[in-house]
Amino acid sequence: MAKFSLLLFISFCATLWNSLLAQSKIDSLLPTRGFCISAPKPQKVDDFVKFIQEELAPRQVNTLILRVDYNYQFESHPELRDPEALSKKDVKKLVSVCKKNNIRIIPQINLLGHQSWATTTTNLLKVYPEFDETPAVKMPEKYVWPNPDGLYCKSYCPLHPTVHQVVFALMDEICDVFETNAFHAGMDEVFYIGDDKCPRCSGRDKAELFAGEVNKIRNRLALKNRKLWIWGDRLIDGKTTGIGMWEGSFNNTHKAIDLIAKDITICDWHYERPDQTAVYFAMKGFDVITCPWRMPKFAVIQTQDMIKFRQSSTATMKPHFQGMMQTVWTGAESFLDEFYGRNTNKTVEENSATNCFKAMFTEINQQTK
């Protein structure tokens, strides 16, 4: 009996050792293996928990960014809640399943830009219109692009004297409830900044305005030892690189890259081409994560590139190439319906978030063999 028990113990130790070696190998290959999606609605939390347990965890996803925005029952500013919003109990379900599976959970609230979408002003400017960087630009009845106002999404004014009292309270509360040491502030596609008609921002350098807001947010988080994550597009010169006005900047905010703190993590998204700007961010001293969306063939190339960057870099540069993160730009419910084939009336196209997600993590898995 003792001999049998010893054999079982040896077998257990061998299994554990092999598991630790496998985990060490994939962590070395890509330290960050992420997934970014909107937070589910309250009635779909259990469905999403199941997805985390059965789909993210087996793929060894270790970072989950949830785009929460106002889908939470904020106590600091209840006037900003969505009509149907996650409760603290809902959030704790998400936190619990992520802890169980060693997944770092990072909430996002869009700050600075993305304060409107199409014809709708989102909650912050709806409740506090005085924060609007461009109050003279009225929301259209029917949205088209391009338009005479250059309206893509509204921004709040980063120099408004009371805007940070509100947004910092939201940041602190959402980080506390998610029990996290990081926060994603969005900050992508900021077209309205330093507007000529803004009484505070007019005539100011747009790069300095952008950097000032990034650093303010970063410094607030640092008070509780939390790190800031942002999208990287506003830090790329869209004209010089030819990357364009969406994945790069046409209003000179790219110069802010030399003005912001180096401990900010950059989520470098490219959806139409596998541009290798991760190298640029790493050379500037930032940790960087490459982010695909719906092009499976590009996600595979981007994964191979990130692994190559880590393998061929100096000891100083290697840690900056942090890994990969799949992004999803529909609601969590729509993605899960697509992923599980629930909508039988709609064919999943080859270029879809579902197929991109599967292709990226299949490539990661093959690279570890």
From TrEMBL:
Q: What class of enzyme is it?
A: hydrolase
The record's catalysed reaction(s) read: Hydrolysis of terminal non-reducing N-acetyl-D-hexosamine residues in N-acetyl-beta-D-hexosaminides
Q: Which residues are responsible for catalysis?
A: E189
Domain (Glycoside hydrolase family 20 catalytic): residue spans on this chain = 84-309
**Per its UniProt record, what InterPro entries does this chain match?**
Beta_hexosaminidase_sua/sub (IPR025705), GH (IPR017853), Glyco_hydro_20_cat (IPR015883)
Cellular component per GO, a single term: membrane
The UniProt entry's GO biological process terms, in alphabetical order, are: carbohydrate metabolic process; glycosaminoglycan metabolic process
Q: Which GO terms describe its molecular function?
A: beta-N-acetylhexosaminidase activity
Could you name the domain of life of the organism this protein comes from? Bacteria
Q: Which UniProt keywords apply?
A: Hydrolase, Signal
- Signal peptide segment: 1-22
- Its EC number(s): 3.2.1.52
Family designation: Belongs to the glycosyl hydrolase 20 family.
Q: What is this protein called?
A: beta-N-acetylhexosaminidase
